[in-house]
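Protein modeling request. Please complete all fields; requests missing the sequence field cannot be processed.
Requester role: graduate student
Desired output: 3D structure, token encoding
Chains: 1
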Amino acid sequence: SGDKAHADVASRIDALMASYVDKINPVLHAIEIGGFNDAPVANTAVGPAKKFAHDAEQEITRLADMLAQEAASSNTARSDTLHRALWQFGLTVLAAMAIFAPLIILNTRSICGPIAEAQATAERIAVGDLTHMNDSDAHDEVAELQRALNRMRTALHGVVSQVRGSTESINTASAEIATGNQDLSQRTEQTASNLQ
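Delivered output (196 residues):
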């Protein structure tokens, strides 16, 4: 696995750096005490240590490449997971809309339809049409409103019937009074002409 490969490379880097230190320390000590006459001779003495440093550098580059590849692979996997999650979310939203949209439409119709009927009943009552009744077996607030409108229509119909009945009684009484007045007027004229 990746962790074992990383550990192997890291342990090779540690070993190479330890070898570098082992090879460079005697050369540095010789430089400190003036054991080399000139720089090219010191540079030649550092040669074996440089090989370990160069090999360690290559291993570090190899480790960096491995980590970069794993990071790229991880980024690709994360990107794929994100795309899958977005698709799943989108499909879930569409499924929810497909399920809930018809329910919302049905619910709206079940509320708006009875309210429109109640409004139509109120408008018919307002223009004097007391013949129409809406029957509802529902037990919600709109059905209660419809039943209240029906009771109001019935009460208004009763009041109108009473007013019509009273009007007819008044018309009959007025006709009788008019007939009585006319009769009285004729008798008065007859009595007045008999007196003359």
